[in-house]
Amino acid sequence: MTTITFGTDGWRGQIAEDYTFDNVRRCAQGFARYLLEHSGAEKGAIIGYDRRFNSEHFAAAAAEVVAANGIHVWLTQEATPTPVIAYSVVDHKAAGAINITASHNPPTDNGFKVREHTGGAVDPEGLKQIEAYIPDLSGVKRIALDDAIASGKVALFDAATPYHEHLSDLIDVGPIKNAGFKIVVDPMWGNGIGWLPRVLAGGNNTIIEIHNVRNPIYPEMQRPEPIPPNVDVGLRTTIEQKADVLVIFDGDADRVGAGTESGVFINQLQMYALLALYLLDARGERGPIVKTLSTTNMLNKLGKLYDVPVYETGVGFKYVAPKMVETNAMIGGEESGGFAFRGNVPERDGILAGLYLLDFMVRKAMKPSQLIEFLYDKVGEHFYKRVDTRLANQAQTMKIRANVEAARPSAIAGLRMTGINTLDGFKFEMEDGGWLLIRFSGTEPLVRVYCETTHGDKVDAIIDDGLKLAGING
Questions:
Q1: CA-to-CA distance for 67 and 154, rounded, in angstroms?
Q2: What share of the chain has pLDDT > 70, as a percent?
Q3: From start to end of 187-282, where are the E strands?
Q4: pLDDT tens-place string over residues 124-175
Q5: Residue 331 to residues 274, 291, 376, 432: CA-CA distances in angstroms?
Q6: CATH number belonging to domain 383-470
Q7: What CA–CA distance (Å, rounded) separates 162 from 396?
Q8: Pairing of strands 45-49, 339-341
Q9: H/E run at residue 33
Q10: What is the distance between the alpha carbons of residues 239 and 184, in angstroms, rounded to a whole number?
Q11: CATH code for 10-161?
């Protein structure tokens, strides 16, 4: 029997290896018990899915189990963006949700993600409880999907329309519709397909969608993650089409990426700072900012400039979402390109983030490259890089962890070290306000080495020193 371990948002596995129908059913039984024991089961649960291989069938398998446990299920009638599924929890006043998706991970994988009644991530303690409730197959209850639908225990529903209507509470898209932009959209063969054309229909923009059919092998990219080199086709298309902006959604549309009118990628740290600046400057909003320790210190500088508090958490929305709820945060986000906003559910929303970027362009009458210059006028230039190394086995993982735990450098790339933050991984803080972070992925056998610095000429040297500290090279 496969041992199922819940990571950042739930469980992810390799299709047909450990991600099987039986194991999905086991996870669904664990989540059903969690709902039953936390007094929310009578409210029902949402189940949705992405465009990966067999996702709709895995979702049906989960629905059969949850319904057999006496919990009403609303099952999305089509592949649905993660933020739309999250909003459906609130719209239906449901107890929680199951989302069959591996988000931006490789095409070989699929996932089983869970959400609580707010639509946001279940906190770490809740994830541990769900994991502990997962039985062997003999403990799984099940009712055939057709029978569950016929008896009303499972209802197919349209999640898109209520979310589309909800957007009007968060943003006036009228000015964007009539901005006359040429927009390239890359939904990465995933759940963001058709969403910007739908939301911005009836205006005078030209929207060019690429990678906009279902293709679960994700050709022309390594994986549906909105970072280079996966975005290279979109950047080239932006140049070829002489477009004003590139907007990118990952496979389940909870993350966002972007490119300038010149086909230059806007990295995830720049994107987070731009979205925070949009809320603070263009909209005049005020409120806390929640950031994971792996994202930009530009947010701390914006916090000081606009007199708003900044809270730092571990990596993952299982930390960000609860902190946003606790502090009524204006925005929360992480380095992977996932951002959440006050007034919406405490969940990453790539669709809303993309609209906010377009609205920023409209309100400031600036191209994306000009918005970055506007940001840097306030906080100074910042440079970022991340290198991921796949781990061969547990022995290598332990060796790298031991190397990093023992590391106490006095300087990194010639910059004096001022402290070490071990909240999540090992973050070496440097005299320029920059940092080097070495941490192990919560969802893949990877060690990540990241840095942010105000010294553009030191980025590669900082990363090289990080790799040496870990014993990966050098």
A1: 7
A2: 100
A3: 206-209, 245-249, 256-259, 265-266
A4: 899 999 999 999 999 999 999 999 999 999 999 999 999 999 999 999 999 9
A5: 12, 9, 20, 25
A6: 3.30.310.50
A7: 48
A8: unpaired
A9: helix 21-37
A10: 10
A11: 3.40.120.10
* 126 membership: H or E segment, kind and range: helix 124-133
Q: Judging by beta carbons within 10 Å of its beta carbon (0-12, 13-18, 19+), is residue 265 exposed, middle or buried?
A: buried
Tokens describing residue 302: 């914006």
- 344-365, pLDDT tens digit by residue? 999 999 999 999 999 999 999 9
Mean pLDDT, residues 39-57 taken together: 94
- Compute the distance between CA of residue 27 and CA of residue 326 in angstroms, rounded to an integer: 28
Query: Cα(467)–Cα(473) distance, rounded to whole angstroms?
Result: 6
CB 98 within 8 Å of CB 64: no
The pair phi, psi for residue 365, each rounded to 5°, is: 50, 50
Do β-strands 289-292 and 331-333 pair in parallel, antiparallel, or remain unpaired? parallel
171-379 against 383-470: fold identical: no
Say how far apart CA 16 and CA 237 lie, in whole Å. Answer: 35
| Contact residues for 384 (Cβ-Cβ < 8 A; gap 6+) | 267, 268, 269, 270, 296, 450, 451, 452, 459
The pLDDT assigned to 414 comes to: 95
Question: Taking the chain, what is the end-to-end CA distance rounded to the nearest angstrom?
Answer: 41
Q: Which of 199, 210, 38 is nearest to 130 (CA)?
A: 38
**CA 40, CA 35: separation in Å to the nearest integer?**
6
Q: How far is CA 226 from the centre of its chain?
A: 10
Say how far apart CA 388 and CA 436 lie, in whole Å: 13
Domains of the chain by residue range: 10-161, 171-379, 383-470
Token pair, residue 467, equals 């790799």
How far apart, in whole angstroms, are the C-alpha atoms of residue 118 and residue 97? 10
- Strand ranges for 168-307 from DSSP E: 182-186, 206-209, 245-249, 256-259, 265-266, 289-292
Burial 303-326, CB ≥16 within 10 A → b, else e: beebebebbbbbbbbbbbbbbbbe
- Per DSSP, 2 falls in state P
Between CA 242 and CA 433 the distance in angstroms is 37
Long-range Cβ contacts of 33-37 (<8 Å, 24+ apart): 33/69, 33/133, 34/126, 34/129, 34/130, 34/133, 35/71, 35/95, 35/96, 36/69, 36/70, 36/71
- Show the tokens assigned to 66: 């949850």
Q: 171-379: which CATH architecture? A: 3-Layer(aba) Sandwich (3.40)
Q: Which residue shows structure tokens 């000429």?
A: 457
Pick the closest to residue 88 from 64, 58, 50, 118 (CA basis).
118
**Nearest-CA neighbor of 440 among 316, 257, 317?**
316
Cα Rg of the chain (Å, integer): 22
